[in-house]
Amino acid sequence: MPHKGIVYVIDDDQAMRESIDFLLTSANYEVRLFESAPAFLDAMADVEFGCVLSDVRMPGIDGLDLLKRLKASRSRLPVVIMTGHGDVPLAVEAMKLGAVDFIEKPFDDDRLIGMIETSLKLAGEEAKSEAVSQDIVARIQSLSPRELQVMEGLIAGMSNKAIAREFDISPRTIEVYRANVMTKMQASSLSELVRMAMRGGVIKD
Fold first, then answer.
1. Last residue of a domain, one of 130, 154, 179
2. Residue 55 in contact with residue 25, Cβ under 8 Å?
3. Which residues does the UniProt record annotate as the domain HTH luxR-type (predicted)?
């Protein structure tokens, strides 16, 4: 049975790491343990998509510093912060820095598992959505300047003849450009082309 996802546990308390390792492994997660934020950052080059579960109070680089560094590197990893009693202001600061959630120690096992499950799901969907958007932007960038002009005319609702008059080109040539646009954009209809243009930033809100 495949695991439900990877969880990177960062905590300087060995007993806490081992306890979380047992809990999450039992819940069918693949767990990777780190005793400090620097140890995790050093391993970032080999880190696969997963959820980061980090304590907020650690010597050296603490949870907030870790969030700042992950944000600076444009990391897509969801981060859940563990806090001690009375650390709510720190937790709020962590969420401002990009943490998806926080949980207070001692925590309910089921709540932690549910939190990690939700974080992985939402971050996975966001990553897929971002990949699609980047792909659409790449398709738009593959258009020649004239093809881009024709695309802009099409999504503005202009007919082939109107676009031809706009650029003083024959309607037949516009048909060729239009076919090229639809092929390069991998759009099967004008409505799909409009949706892609919106997602790719050609149509501004």
1. 130
2. no
3. 136-201
